[in-house]
Amino acid sequence: MSKRIKVDDLPEFDATPYLESEAAVAAYLTDILEANDGALLAAALGDIARARGMTEIAKSAGITREALYKALRPDSAPRFDTVSRVCEALGVRLVAQAIHA
């Protein structure tokens, strides 16, 4: 008989250890963008910023560290300007792609 595992007993997944390369960051963001969920995008940018160093990214984006944490928490809806500045600080660009039927 196999032991049943409750979902609530599982540890929360942290993507930051896997975001060490530019390719990993690009693949992560591409997958997140396909979900078409602004709050999920904010949380993913927060994961990447934590992997790179939140203080450094905040400085590069021209916002305070506290404001960056607030803007990139999982339940937030940051302004496009904030997302754009954080992406630039992270060295990534969001790209539009045609949707094929």
What does this structure look like?
It is globular, with a radius of gyration of 15 Å. The N and C termini lie far apart (46 Å). It has helices at residues 22-34, 38-52, 54-61, 65-71, 80-90. It has a domain at 21-90. The mean pLDDT is 91. Helix 2 (38-52) runs parallel beside helix 5 (80-90). It has 101 residues and is mainly alpha-helical. This is Putative addiction module antidote protein. GO terms for molecular function: DNA binding.
What secondary-structure arrangement, pairings included, does this model have?
Layout: H1 22-34, H2 38-52, H3 54-61, H4 65-71, H5 80-90
Kindly list the characteristics that best describe this protein:
101 residues, mainly alpha, 5 helices
The overall average pLDDT, rounded, is 91
Q: Element order, helices and strands?
A: HHHHH
How much helicity do the residues have?
Answer: 40-55%
Number of helices: 5
| Global geometry | globular
Quickly give the structural class: mainly alpha
User: How many DSSP E strands?
Assistant: 0
The description of the largest β-sheet is: none
Distance between the termini: 46 Å
Low-confidence residue ranges: none
**For the CA atoms, what is the radius of gyration?**
15 Å
> Strand portion, in percent?
under 5%
